[in-house]
Design a protein that fits this description.
The protein has one domain: Sodium/glucose cotransporter. By secondary structure, the chain is mainly alpha-helical. The protein is built from 18 helices and no strands. It binds tryptophan. Tryptophan (TRP) binds next to helix 1, helix 2, helix 10 and helix 14.
Amino acid sequence: MAMGATDRGAWGSRMGFVLAAAGSAVGLGNIWGFPTQVGRGGGAAFVVLYLLCVGLICAPILIAEIAIGRRTQKDPVTAFEVLRPRTAWWLTGLLGVLAGVGILSFYSVIAGWTLAYVWYTATGAVTGSQDAIGAFFGDFVSNGPLSLGLTLVVLVTTAVIIIGGVRSGIERVTRVLMPLLLGLLVLLAARAVTLPGAEAGLAYYMRPDVSRLFDMSVLNAALGQAFFSLSLGMGAMITYGSYLTRRQGIGGAAVWVVLLDTSVALLAGFIIFPAGFSLPGFDPGSGGPGLIFTVLPRLFDTLPGGHLFGAAFFVLLSMAALTSTISLLEVPVSHLIDGHGWTRRNAVLAITTLTAALAIPSALSNGAVGFFSQLPGLGMSFLDFMAIVWNEFALPIGGLLVAIFVGHIWRVDEALAELRAEGAAFPLGGLWGALIRYVCPIAILLIIIFTTLRTLAS
Ligand code: TRP
């Protein structure tokens, strides 16, 4: 379908939706974020909590978001207005629109780094000892103008694609990208686990330290990471669901998205930790945002033709990041189009400009400007601060509101009617209803309360 007068689009098929949703889900969150969080959260305990969050909390919310979108065929703000007019529920959508801008502003900085590493690995600029590779990364990210320029390249590329509409581009790119990415990750994991010293990495990654399973801060980070990785809690899946037609089923699509996203994250861990622990003196917790940029180049060095593998890896990672930035930008853009009658082009220009301005402090927060690199009183960089605010608070709160809305306001039977429209199969509806009504809201609320108390106490 061509873009109509309203500038709305639609997926060509259910497969197109699965590809776009998986493209949104699989990104830096899986390959850069997941191992970083595992390292900070103490290894396998984080992995266990993460999987629990995905299965019990995030998968049901993913289904709920898609159902809201397909039912209303609207952007997140308008969708809540359509389902419950003259109530304050539209604010849930607005939180999502703001989160889209907030997340994109730091996400595009890291996407810019992966873009630069295509060049650096291909030309052999990042090789040598672990210290040399670490110093290279440190010098690179503290170059403010370079980071800013790369961020702009990412944002402008995303904007150009989105001006073309949701369909053209995303479906096609993801169809080719996903199998290639999975293939390369399996190959790299196979190499990593056979390196000398890899066993220590596997143990760290797979044998949970039981005491950390009950650590609320690890649980909160796992929840935030699960939301982020599945692109939940800010209406991205409402927006993508709104481009589905009623003939396109939801249940099976959601299962595919969860399985693909989780496999890519788990595979990334099977690469980083065995490869990391094969290096002398490796400390998985100290890597921070540089973990993949400092461990992977060493891994590529151990492969024949490693430069090529490295460049291919960063090309695929950049593309995966791009299909995610597209979904982040699409949420605020769809709101200006549906809610305020803007043209797609003007909406994209306005939101991109705003995001670029907000990205400046993040781009300068890795050594370029002292104030942003070490925020006074917070002891963290502006980029880390943004990631925590949006991932660990805004997204779970958005998810909490979606669960309450679908479970208790719109109601499970209405939602199930949407999920089973046109005779679509949706087994385990009762289980889904119980999870969305009780498990999701209570679990998220408890986690948020504990985290807030802890933050206030410290
Ligand atoms: N899920 C993406 C990743 O893992 C990031 C992302 C894209 C996202 N769209 C989103 C996160 C919407 C939250 C909400 O890299």
